[in-house]
Amino acid sequence: MHGKEDGQGFIILKLDDGEDLMDSLKGAISQFGITSGHVISGIGMLRDIEIGYFQGKEKGYCLRSLEEPHELVSLQGSISTKEGVTIHLHCSLANSNHEIVGGHLNRATVCVLNEILIRKTDKTVLGRIHNAKTGLKELTVA
Amino acid sequence: MHGKEDGQGFIILKLDDGEDLMDSLKGAISQFGITSGHVISGIGMLRDIEIGYFQGKEKGYCLRSLEEPHELVSLQGSISTKEGVTIHLHCSLANSNHEIVGGHLNRATVCVLNEILIRKTDKTVLGRIHNAKTGLKELTVA
Amino acid sequence: MHGKEDGQGFIILKLDDGEDLMDSLKGAISQFGITSGHVISGIGMLRDIEIGYFQGKEKGYCLRSLEEPHELVSLQGSISTKEGVTIHLHCSLANSNHEIVGGHLNRATVCVLNEILIRKTDKTVLGRIHNAKTGLKELTVA
Question: For chain C, which terminal residue's Cβ has fewer other Cβ atoms within 10 angstroms, N or C?
Fold first, then answer.
C-alpha cells in the first residue's frame, strides 16, 4: 500500500495484489493519523472475500465466502478509532459474468490492485457503542 | 437521526431503526441548513423499500416493493432545495442470499441503522427544472 | 454537459441524453482544469454500455455490451492526466427488472440524464505506470 494525503483531508491509496484489504486500511489509518473518517470510494478487484447479511441479534450475520476474483464495483463505509479501530464497509462485487453480489464486507485480499479514496475528519469524532437491542456496536457521532 | 457537521461542509448522520429515510434526510437538510449537496455514501440496512426503473416519459417508473430487510450496499445522489426539497437517490441493496437489486430509490424505512455521509455546498446552487422531453424535473447547476 | 466548480475542489456535472459519457468527462477535465481527481458519485441512466471483467494479463477483459437503458446505480473511480487522460471507472447498473450487473466501465451513452460529482486535487498527482506483471497501466500516487 502506498498513498498520500493532500492536505485537505483526502487520502488516496493504491493497494497491490496479495495485500489484506483490512490490514492495509489499518496501515493507512496509522500512517495518516486518521481518527475518524469515511471510505468514499474503492475500485479494483478482490479475492478470498467474506461478505455478510445481518439477520438480527439472535442469528447474526449470514456469511458467504467468495474465493474467485471479483471486480470491486463500489465500496462505502466509515472509520472510527475511539473504542478501537472499526472499519465498517459495504461493497458490491461483480463476477466473470458481470453479475453482482454484495453486502457487509468482513475480509478480502486485494486482487491485481485497489484504488481507494478516504476522507478523514478531525472535527467530528466517530465512535462505537454497544446497542443491546441490535447486538451491534453502533456508530456514534460527536 | 443524529449527526454533526464538521465545519468543512461534510455532515455525518446516524439513523436508527424505524425512521423513514427520506423524512430523516429532510430533517438533516433543515437542521444543517443544506441548500444544495450530495449524498456521498450510505450503508446499513433498509426495509419497506420502493425502487424504480425509469421507462421513459409515457410509462414512468416501473416500481418494485421490497418488504424484507436488505443490506444498503451503496447510496449516491443529489440534494436540491431551490424549487422545493428534492432528494434524488440511487441505491443498491443485497438480500439474504447476497444478491443485489437496485435503482432509483423512492422510499424506505431504516432497518437496524444507517450511516450516511452528506456534502453540502453553498457555492453551487442546485435546482430542478421540468424537461418536457423526458417528463422529469431535471437537475440544474448554477 | 454543463457543470460548475464550487471553489472547494468539487465539480457538479449534469449530462444530457445522447452524450458520450467518457467524452463528456474529458470535456469536464479540460474545462475545469482537472489534473488529478476522483469520480465520487454518478446516477441517472446509461445505454449502449460496455462493461468488463478483468481475467488477468493473458486473457484481458471479458466484455459485455448492454444496448438497453440501465439505471446508473453507482459510479466510482479515478482521473489521472499525467501520462495522458485516464478515467478509471467502475459502475453498477440496474435493468428493468431491477437486477444489477456491473464492473469496469469501458464506454456508455448518457440516457435521459446523468448527475456526476467529481473531486479534483492539485496537491496529489495521480499518474499511470505499466506493470509488466498485470499488463495494466496502474495508478501512481505522488
Answer: C
User: What pTM did the predictor assign?
Assistant: 0.98
Q: Name the interface residues of A facing C (CB cutoff 8 Å).
A: 2-8, 10, 12-14, 17, 40-43, 45, 69, 71-75, 92, 94-100, 112-113, 115, 117
From chain A, pick out residues whose CB is under 8 angstroms from the CB of B12.
38, 78, 121, 124, 126, 141
Rounded Cα distance, A115 and A28, in Å: 13
In chain B, what residues touch C117 (CB-CB under 8 Å)? Answer: 38, 40, 78
Q: What is the pLDDT of residues B8-45, one digit of tens each?
A: 999 999 999 999 999 999 999 999 999 999 999 999 99
A41 HSE (CA, 13 A, CB side): 29
Q: Which residues contact C98 (CB under 8 A, 6 or more apart)?
A: B51, B53, B62, B64, B101, B102, B103
Closest CA to B116 of B45, B31, B33, B67: B45
Rounded CA-CA distance B34/B32 in Å is 6
Mean pLDDT by 10 residues, chain C (142 residues): 94 98 98 98 98 97 98 98 97 98 98 98 96 96 98
Here the ipTM equals: 0.97
Q: Please tell me what DSSP assigns to residue A69.
A: -
